[in-house]
Request: fold
Amino acid sequence: MASSMLSGTENFTLIRGITPNGLGLVRSNLNGKPFTKLSFTSNGKKNLTFRSKSTTFVPKCSASSARPSSQPRFIQNKKEAFWFYRFLSIVYDHVINPGHWTEDMRDDALEPADLNNRNMLVVDVGGGTGFTTLGIVKHVDAKNVTILDQSPHQLAKAKEKEPLKDCKIIEGDAENLPFRTDYADRYVSAGSIEYWPDPQRGIREAYRVLKLGGKACIIGPVYPTFWLSRFFADMWMLFPKEEEYIEWFEKAGFKKVELKRIGPKWYRGVRRHGLIMGCSVTGVKPASGDSPLELPPKVEEVEKKESPFAFLTRLILGSLAGLYYVLVPIYMWLKNLVVPKGMPI
Reply:
């Protein structure tokens, strides 16, 4: 699997006289030579700084393409997401994960979460079928892990997994977690933020439920640069920009915010099509209590009168947009076989 800290398509300002040629994969460059592993860190400004032990690069441009402020996002709604996963849960582990969220990717993405104590309390928010939780229980006793999701159909799949039989499995809302303040040592959420109507509120909740010194780890998609992929991404669900993740974490009160790029084996560093699982973002809670970020009370979702036809149309359009991203890894896998090694795809 390839995890990347710098994309080969971006421009960088050289700070210490070391040319970043070929940087695209974590443990090797595009020519197969090793180099220092890099990660994003927040520098308190609107831009991002890329740090390594030997050099620092500051992007001349933003870390990802601009995203329109208003988008249809047919599945970034709890009602649509519920029914979307009602059917997707049947094939999720066998069709979606092999192309977008492999075991190698999962383990690499969870590494920054520092799951280093079997007795720590962990909440897996948006845990779905429990695929990510299987990576968590490698390091933490299952009895100390809680899986939360709004989809009973996804959670039913998690309950079938033998290593998760001792986990607590509950239905709940990522933007209104049923845990007390200062409850958990670690907060993990993978493949969920893209369906949150209000990502900032969800990350604020992550801060609240963590103990002092606890760490949040959110794994999610990254926005594409290729026009057609942007079109389908904007129709389907939320694909945040990398700098948006950083901003949300900082506003919620997190410190030591870092972003690590991840990707499947066919990924060679160029993010033309975006990735459903493209980054792992972590932050540390610096003080006990609630988040310093004040938000207005959550507006309860009120059932609006709409024709079943309108709802079904949105669901179908959103699902078709999602189908595009089922086909992308197949296309990229084939392209990876044809395009000579060392060339970005």
